[in-house]
Hints:
alpha/beta; Arc Repressor Mutant, subunit A; Serine Threonine Protein Phosphatase 5, Tetratricopeptide repeat; Rossmann fold; five-stranded parallel β-sheet; 6% strand; globular
Amino acid sequence: MAALRFSLLGPLRAWRGTDELELGSPQQRAVLAMLLLRRGQAVGVADFVDGIWGAQPPEGAVPVLRTYISRLRKLLEPERPSGQPSDLLVSIGDGYALRTGTLSSDLDDFGEAVAQAERRRATGDGQSAVRLLRTVLAAGEGTALAGVPGPYAEAARDDLAERRLSALELALRIELEVGRHEALVPELLTLRDAHPLREAMSELLLIALYRCGRQAEALAVYTRTRRILVEELGIEPGPSLRAVHERILAGDPALGRPTPSGPAGGPVGGRAAPAGSGPEPRPEPDNPAPVRGTGAVRPFQLPADPPLFAGRRAQLHCAKDLLPDGDGPPDTAVIGVVDGMAGTGKTTIAVHWAHRIAHRFPDGCLYVNLRGFDPAGSWLAPGDAIEMFLDALGVAPQSVPESLDAQAALYRSVLADRRVLIVLDNARDTEQVRPLLPGTPGSLVIVTSRSRLSGLIAGHGAQLLTLDLLTAEESLELLTRRLGAARVGAEPEAANAIVDLCARLPLALAIVAARAAHHPAFRLADIVEGLRDDHGSLDAFSVGDDAGTDIRAVFSWSYHALSPEAAGLFRRLTLHPGPDISAAAATALAGVPSREGRALLAELTGASLVIERAPGRFVFHDLLRAYGCELTTRHDSASERDAALLRMHDHYLHTAHHASAVLGPFRETVPVPPSRTGSGPLRFNDAKQATTWLRTERHVLRAIVEHAADRGYPDHAWRTAYALDLFCDRLGYRHDLMEINKAALRAAQDLGDPVGQAHSLRGLGFCHTRFDHADEASRLLGGALELFRKTGDAFGQARTRRGLAFQANRLGRHDVALEHYEQAAELYRSLGHISGEASVLNEVGWTYILRGDAANALEYCEKAVALQQEVGDLNGEASALDSVGYAHHHLGQYGPAVEHFERAVELYRQLDNRYMEADTLRHLGDAHRAAHDHGSARAAWAAALALLEEGGHTETDDVRRALRELDSLARDQRDQ
């Protein structure tokens, strides 16, 4: 039998040979995870129950556990004869053990690699140790045991994360020992921000900065770390960090000298590099962070502050003059426009400046890339940007109006009493920016653009800051910051030649410096020779009037230095519609295994050809995207490009389908043709994991559907749109759903597919119902119903009937709604679809409540509860229980109402459906209030308020009002 291999450092997965195994339910995966992590030791039944379900196991937990063990035995040993004891998953006492001698896992590989690296370090082979550690660290696939439930898995995740972080610290420490301090500073700055309480990271950063001649910045880092430790933990830094700080203060030459230290975790010493190689230290104010639960959301969307920012002192001085002296926000509306040609560093200076002044804006920072000059022409519409901002500011998606004017008005209203810093990056023109401007003073808007944006200057009093090329001195400073003073000072003529060949353009200099930093053994003279050899004659990106300064030569130099596989991925990434791309989607485009894909992305980011704007998410600079587009047209055949795009669309379609199946396991599905491309779709173990992916990919998925519709993948377009329907409607992303269904309908019509047209018409009609477009909704839903009849799709007819009934109820035509529900229920019964029939019964009951007939409503909703329990649809059961409680309330039966609301709350809590839990808690509070149980009403409403504030929903005002009225009533009663 083929060998078994397991992955635990990402989602729990298993393979027999090359075939991946389906590991079953989340709880069954939790059983397997415990067996694997106990490494052959027996796990008792009680330990299993505690580890999987915690303090509240379900009834019958032990029989369920034994069922999981039986299924795992069949899965892991399919050839074992029936009745023969298992040789792999054995019974020991009242528990079980997994014999791991014949198994392998990525966790075992990780442990062996760390041990081997420590041995190589001890023998003085630091370079080899670093390569080994970096390789094994790059092999991780996100969060360990992602999606595996239970207290044991949660504790194991923390332990495995700590092991990875410790291994990373070991790699960084060894790299300092071999003299790579200059190249490590950016990574250490990022890690320090991600782990501000981890003293080892700060210690390594202090040493790296000190060796780069940046003593003042090192001291500032220590001061900030000490302040955080004291304020958050009430402790002073430990002895090791304090010792490094004292050595820096004393100017200890030994600390600046890269000298191998031997044992892991020991101090790293050496002599200090010459000071003065970097800019003056800048203040490091505490960045405002998102705040939930206080009634107002305080977003912080700025990208990371560029750690190696250099030059531009004159421009920063001019920017400083835009704001009044002091630390508060401005008293007037202030707009700053940073313009200049592509590649001059407009985004870099805007983000850097924004970080320096962010502390002056108490209500947060907003950032959006408007993609005004995207080579594919997919610039961001103002309405889409406003939706993103409103979402970040805590406005529920379903509360956003449809028209741009109304959206802009709501946006200005939300900002009216707030003091916010807004960065509008890469604007196309004034018309794209104008709707995004606040209407009241007190906020600052920073706009970057290749255009002059004269309309903002003339019409809104914007202040202009134009970026030209760097000066020669600033260019050398940039190189020095990235390569170190010693390396630049050793070859001044070559450094000056690099500046000239890069035409003093920051983007070009950054790319060349990244390549040089990646190869510390290269002489700068060799780099100059390579640049001159590759210099081309294309002038589309030439700088100024000198046709000899061609930025494509810089791009080509970095591009030709890539491995063939990384070069191929660079070209194929330009086929993606954006706005950014995940590592998984990039891997699908490349058509390589996920581990190889991550390594290729690391190569591209190391060469500064793509930017990792967030963990696992990548973007292009516009010039590099344009360059990559030309390369793929020139070097990849049409069939190669088509194959890559097919893999990409397969990846998104199948991943969205898997997410939808997890969110709505009882929902009728549209079959998805099997993928023949090996696109590596993602799978999800629970609704929370699926929702997280959908939220993260929300804007990408909209672009993907539109791309598929317009670029020859119509079947993918409408099927992906269908898979997104449930998610977008539940979370209120109705504008997205409208545009996605428009593209889907267009695609299905081009394809001539009546099934696709019917589903798209139904989805589009339901969107128009949400926006109260009654006539258009009736036309579209009617068209969908007719197509579903012609194709004999009873599921589609039933769902469309429910849409028509929903519309009729919104219009107050309850009799019409009941007729549609009756036909929908009959269709579901003919199909034997109990969950669908139960949902209709619940909706019928709600219709009777709208009619004022609570007694009839109760009968229907109780039938719905029974049917949902029969099929095990917990979400449907919770919804029906809430309706039963609502009917009892309207009948004046507050005791039964409370009982049903509490049962519904418990189910929603199990499902982690916080919005519906809050909605039912509000109903529960209403019932307690009606029964004059004011203490219980307050508790229910307070719990609902906390959940609504956490999600940034607009219903918070209603709940606060109810609580105030309750408090007022209590005061009146005390005064009587």
